[in-house]
Design goal:
The complex is a heterodimer. Chain A is of the alpha/beta class. Chain A is built from 15 helices and 19 strands. In chain A, the strands form 6 sheets. A 7-stranded mixed beta sheet of chain A has the order 6-12-11-10-9-7-8, sandwiched between helices. In chain B, strands 2-4-3-6-7 form a 5-stranded mixed beta sheet, covered by helices on one side. In chain B, strands 1-5 form a two-stranded antiparallel ribbon. Classes of the chains: A alpha/beta, B alpha+beta.
């Protein structure tokens, strides 16, 4: 049972009905979807909203004067407003991108860096928040440095202080993951932002994981840029957003340019459009944007706090169950509440890919195995000496998952372990 | 280990399906890496193991558990069986190519099943039903040892490099089948192949033909070969009638300097009979079961084989196929050594 932030009790079984995929059976067994850190499932309401575009107003927004164009424009605008409100931003400070990765790339490629500027990231970043910076290092004279985690693999403020001082005012961006997709650990964001700003650095937050079960308000946090993906927020694929402030966006140069990014153009020059349009080149993913807006509505109805409470509860259950199985090692803090809805683990002497495939083939339990796009962390010498050197199996819970599913998962792990 | 099997199986399925082609390529990559002492990177072996085990576990948990625990051994066993059958198939293919029969050229081999020749037509012979010529000793190979071939009609070129002895019968369907092939072989190699025809009279009533040929051969070799070709080409039913056989000499008489009546008379004499008996006693030494049986140099062929089979036995033949196989094998080995040594990870 979930309880919404408006005090309205919400029955889990009612919510699950909104996710038709959960009715699917493979080999006469229902599926158990525990890969929400990769992609969340979509409720019917989101699918219907996206479909509405194609059925009712399949046109361009902001170009033509006809009814359909205006309707699309209005829907796009509504969605943008919903997203802005959800993240505590102004409407014009929401830039639609293809996904979180593109949002980060937008900042990386548009920020007015100078030679010798430094970008800091943690040592546990998804490739989407590492590679754009490495590319800058190769392309321009920008430096990239790592904030090493502490001995318990958690964010170390001491190391952060040392690093930022080491670079003596040259740090221009601190780009960190809010909640790690690897072990579910949330970084002390407010402290990071405070310290970064004190040293004149902007903060970019990779909120791909965090946004689905943490309240993220750019104003309250004081962050400069937030990158999110719709597909982890119950929304459609192919759309994400960079959420910022007007001042921060106006500071950025243009990244992708073309139609709709200019007010006017001649053969030898052009006048950029105002924000956010100047960053949204070409026709946008209107059905995706509309679906994104519907997803935000849905999340608000369910309640982010409720979601967080629920997934943590599931994680506690799962973690307790796995700890009783011989040979299981869980990555990250012992306390499940510090790992949100993510449970990364390995089983001694078992191949992680084989194990995850067996979970799928025998019990229809869908988890992920491997490096989870955090290859850099697994390439560290320290990691290579641990049980986690070849990657982990990651179960990530959503609010539509149940305790019965978690019990089934623990039972399946035990059975396969004993093969 | 499982990747070896996957490569073969999906390789065959991939001929018909694009999905399987992708897996076949993955399997090939895995196999090649393993053969060149590198680690497989595709993860195909893990996926296959999980898929097979998962399926078994769903159907029968005990069996699934057994398969999972002993997967390496089971897949090794199947791999060995696969390689064994591939080698066997390769040998069969080679035998079929070289000897016209999957099992080889020997007498015992001719009876076995050959998938490339499922009806066994390449090994079919007509058995001898002539009590005078009851010759074959069971299990023994046909031979030309101690056989006096000078008693039989022979075409001998100046520069003899190969010997072909053709044991056949004019009334034998299988001899008729191979005759054009033998003719082609002999004509193409007339400068180097010594060709002997041994008429094996499968039925007693055709022994007169043997005597007729001997007399004709003594009279004129050219006339004999013409008569021989005529006998091979006329319908078998015509050969049942002695008069019709004699009438074949009429046409030869027109072009060759022979006397038909003289030849017929010669064939009915005591000397002709004695000659026949000498020849039959030599034929008995050959240990031939039926016709056609063809001896080319040291190799014996039972049944009507394709031309390539006989050509391969000639000393003038260049075994391009064999050389190609060896060359390809050497290239593959060199490539594997290169990858194992220089591309080691």
């Amino acid at each position: 049972m979930l309880e919404s932030i408006f005090g309205k009790k919400v029955e889990m079984s009612e919510l699950r009905k909104d996710f038709k995929i959960l009715d699917r059976k493979i080999n006469n067994k229902p599926i158990i979807y525990f890969d929400n850190a990769c992609m969340s499932l979509r409720p019917t309401q989101v699918l219907e909203k996206s479909g509405e575009y194609y059925l009712n107003y399949p046109g361009c927004a902001g170009r033509s004067n006809h009814t359909i164009s205006q309707e699309v424009g209005k829907e796009e605008d509504n969605a943008r407003e919903k997203i802005a409100n959800f993240f505590g931003a102004k409407k014009e400070a929401v830039v639609f991108t293809k996904n979180c990765t593109e949002a980060i790339n937008l900042v990386a490629n548009s920020f007015p860096f100078e030679n010798g500027d430094v970008v800091l990231t943690t040592d546990k970043e998804h490739n989407s928040n590492l590679i754009p910076w490495l590319r800058l290092v190769k392309k321009w004279e920008i430096k990239h440095d790592i904030i090493e985690s502490g001995p318990k693999n958690e964010f170390s403020m001491d190391n952060f202080v040392k690093k930022i001082n080491e670079h003596k005012g040259k740090v221009k961006i601190v780009s960190v993951v809010y909640t790690s997709n690897l072990d579910g650990v949330t970084n002390p964001i407010k402290d990071i932002i405070r310290l970064s700003h004190r040293h004149g650095a902007k903060v970019l937050l990779d909120c791909a994981q965090a946004a689905q079960h943490q309240e993220i308000n750019i104003k309250k946090l004081g962050a400069d840029y937030i990158a999110v993906s719709s597909h982890k927020l119950l929304g459609p694929n192919g759309v994400g957003a960079l959420i910022s402030t007007k001042e921060n966006l106006e500071q950025l140069n243009q990244f992708l340019v073309g139609g709709e990014t200019v007010e006017d153009s001649q053969y030898d020059d052009f006048v950029p459009a105002k924000i956010p349009g100047k960053f949204e080149a070409g026709l946008q993913n209107y059905p995706g944007i509309m679906g994104f807006g519907a997803a935000i509505d849905y999340l608000e109805n369910v309640g982010i706090k409720n979601i967080h409470k629920h997934v943590v509860r599931l994680n506690e259950l799962a973690s307790a169950g796995l700890r009783e199985i011989e040979g299981v090692a869980i990555l990250g803090p012992k306390e499940a509440e510090k790992r949100s809805g993510v449970l990364s683990f390995v089983i001694k002497d078992k191949n992680i890919h084989e194990f995850s495939l067996l979970l799928n083939n025998t019990h229809n339990i869908m988890v992920r195995s491997g490096a989870h796009c955090v290859h850099s962390w697994f390439s560290r010498e320290e990691t290579k000496k641990t049980l986690f050197k070849d990657g982990t199996i990651r179960a990530s819970f959503g609010f539509y998952n149940t305790e019965e599913e978690v019990n089934e998962f623990v039972k399946a792990v035990r059975e396969i372990r004993e093969l | 280990m499982i990747c070896f099997i996957a490569m073969i199986v999906f390789g065959i399925l991939g001929i018909f399906s694009a999905t399987h082609r992708k897996v076949a390529l993955e399997a090939f990559d895995c196999v090649f890496r393993k053969l060149t002492l590198r680690k497989c990177q595709t993860g195909l072996d893990v996926r296959l193991k999980s898929s097979i085990t998962g399926h078994s576990l769903r159907k029968n948990p005990k069996l699934g558990k057994f398969i999972y625990k002993h997967f390496q051994i089971i897949s090794a066993l199947f791999t060995i069986l696969l390689f064994g059958s591939l080698i066997w198939t390769g040998i069969s293919g080679y035998n079929y190519y070289v000897y016209g029969n999957c099992n080889g050229p020997s007498v015992e081999d001719q009876g076995g099943l050959c998938l490339f020749d499922p009806t066994g037509s390449n090994s079919e012979i007509t058995e001898c039903d002539n009590d005078d010529v009851n010759i074959q000793t069971a299990g023994q190979e046909p031979t030309l040892d101690d056989v006096d071939l000078s008693l039989f009609p022979t075409y001998q070129p100046n520069d003899v490099q190969d010997q072909l002895v053709y044991v056949g019968c004019y009334t034998c369907v299988n001899t008729r089948k191979v005759n054009p092939v033998i003719n082609e072989l002999v004509v193409a190699n007339k400068e180097t192949v010594a060709f002997t025809f041994v008429h094996l009279p499968l039925y007693e009533e055709y022994e007169y033909m043997f005597k007729l040929e001997n007399c004709l051969y003594q009279e004129s070799k050219t006339a004999f070969w013409k008569f021989h070709n005529s006998l091979m080409q006329v319908p078998i039913t015509k050969l049942e009638n002695q008069e019709k056989v004699y009438s074949l000499l009429d046409k030869i008489e027109e072009t060759e300097d022979i006397d038909k009546e003289k030849i017929i008379f010669c064939s009915q004499t005591k000397q002709a009979e004695e000659q026949l008996q000498k020849q039959i006693s030599e034929i008995k030494k050959m240990n031939v079961e039926g016709t056609p049986t063809i001896f080319i140099n040291d190799q014996t062929f039972i049944g009507p084989k394709p031309l390539r089979v006989y050509e391969k036995q000639l000393s003038t033949d260049v075994d391009w196929f064999g050389m190609g196989l060896i060359g390809l094998g050497a290239l593959i080995v060199l490539m594997m050594i290169y990858f194992a040594v220089f591309k080691r990870e």
